[in-house]
Design brief:
Helix content is 33%, strand content 22%. With 396 residues, it is α+β, with helices and mostly antiparallel strands. The strands form five sheets. It has a six-stranded mixed sheet. Strands 8, 9, 11, 12 and 19 form a five-stranded mixed sheet that branches. A four-stranded antiparallel sheet has the order 13-14-17-18, with helices on one face. Helix 6 crosses helix 7. The chain is elongated. The termini are far apart. 46% of the residues are buried. The mean pLDDT is 95.
Length: 396
């Protein structure tokens, strides 16, 4: 835990302090930010309060039968046994603080950070405390990347792009030879490439043929795999990170292709609409960074969604535009989202995220076009190649 950095961030956001609370590992975010053992046995409630004032001491409140739970952290320790004693001592250790951040989101708008139960919020409000969301603080300490971590993302990008190219060639060769292939075989081929490249993936990747590409979270199995033939529309979504780095950052992309033919006019129109939506989000983010203007995740989502809405296709864009990428594939920074949530978190410098609008037509096909971006001071960059037209496999 970096106490000085946390207190500096609290002052920057005009907060009096940050209250961490857990019971039975309900809040994994707290364990990561405080550098606590995520596998420790916890059967009683604990609280840890970090004041914004660097001259004030952090405060701990633990149950007497688990009194050592926070001993690795700096600060003054208080103990309780009864619920009455808990409430009395919790109120006492917050004296002098009014606006307090917790893992809370008003109306559960950002559910990824909403870890504190309503009863605990009610208790703190009974002390006349104003509880605000710690969402932007969490982004600072969970999503902001070091230069070394950013380097791992680019290393994964170079390797995974080659794995994907090999996958497209595998499909083209299999169909051209007449032996054919299927979705699950393509996934096996991609997984072998990921392993050979020194990369790791937790599940997937996904290869979706024909109507299956209209299911944005389709996952082929050996039993349900669809045969891939000349004439098919194919979507591949693939993600991985360096296998030998516990703090390595993921790379996550989606491309689409047709096999042994030219795209239809409808396929080209849908692809172009998705591509233009992607580019609108990218441009909006880059313009904000170039002008040093803060930008929230919902604003980038709107930029992409407005292009699709103008094309009359809004009902077919059924998910957010992008997600934060960090040590976890779906990290705890801002998502590009004004559909599933209204994400007011800022796209902070030194964070990574996907831009992946999509259009899905059940029974026909679906197009998703996914790139990754890293926001740097004064600039936001796309970290890999952008697909600007549908791939045509096996057409020379």
């Amino acid at each position: 835990m970096n106490l000085e950095a946390i207190q500096s961030a609290l002052r920057d956001q005009n907060l009096d302090g940050w209250l961490f609370y857990d019971h039975h590992h309900r809040d994994p975010i707290a364990y990561r930010i405080l550098s606590l053992d995520e596998n420790s046995f916890v059967s009683r409630r604990w609280y840890y309060y970090i004041p914004a004032n660097s001259e004030a001491e952090p405060q701990k409140l633990v149950h007497r039968i688990e009194s050592g739970k926070l001993d690795t952290l700096p600060g003054q320790k208080h103990e309780y046994s009864s619920w009455q004693e808990l409430e009395q001592k919790l109120e006492a250790m917050l004296i002098g603080s009014q606006t307090i951040a917790m893992q809370y989101s008003p109306r559960n708008a950002i559910m990824y950070v909403s870890m504190v139960d309503a009863g605990t919020i009610e208790l703190l409000r009974s002390f006349n405390k104003q509880i605000v969301s710690s969402a932007n603080l969490i982004s600072l300490f969970e999503a902001v990347l070091t230069e070394a971590q950013i380097a791992t993302h680019f290393a994964a990008q170079q390797r995974l792009d080659e794995v994907l190219r090999s996958g497209w060639q595998y499909i083209a060769d299999a169909c051209a030879s007449g032996r054919g292939t299927d979705e699950h075989a393509v996934v096996r081929h991609l997984l072998q490439g990921i392993d050979r490249a020194g990369l790791f993936t937790d599940h997937g990747p996904n290869c979706s043929a024909g109507p299956n590409s209209a299911d944005s979270h389709y996952e082929p199995t050996a039993a349900s795999s669809r045969t891939i033939r000349t004439g098919d529309f194919i979507l591949i979504d693939i993600w991985a990170k360096l296998a030998n780095g516990p703090t390595a950052i993921w790379y996550d992309i989606t491309w689409t292709a047709v096999v042994g033919r030219s795209p239809t006019a409808r396929e080209q129109h849908i692809f172009a609409t998705v591509r233009d939506a992607r580019d609108a989000a990218i441009a909006t983010i880059q313009q904000a960074y170039a002008s040093n203007t803060p930008i929230a995740g919902w604003q980038a989502d709107d930029a992409a969604r407005n292009v699709i809405r103008a094309a009359g296709l809004a009902e077919y864009f059924t998910h957010r535009t992008g997600h934060n990428i960090a040590v976890s594939l779906h990290g705890n920074g801002a998502h590009l989202d004004n559909l599933e949530t209204h994400d007011e978190r800022l796209l902070l410098p030194h964070t990574c995220f996907s831009v992946e609008p999509g259009l899905y037509f059940p029974g026909e096909f679906g197009v998703r076009n996914e790139v990754n971006m890293i926001a740097l001071p004064g600039n936001a960059v796309v970290t890999g190649p952008k697909q600007n037209e549908l791939l045509r496999l096996g057409t020379g």
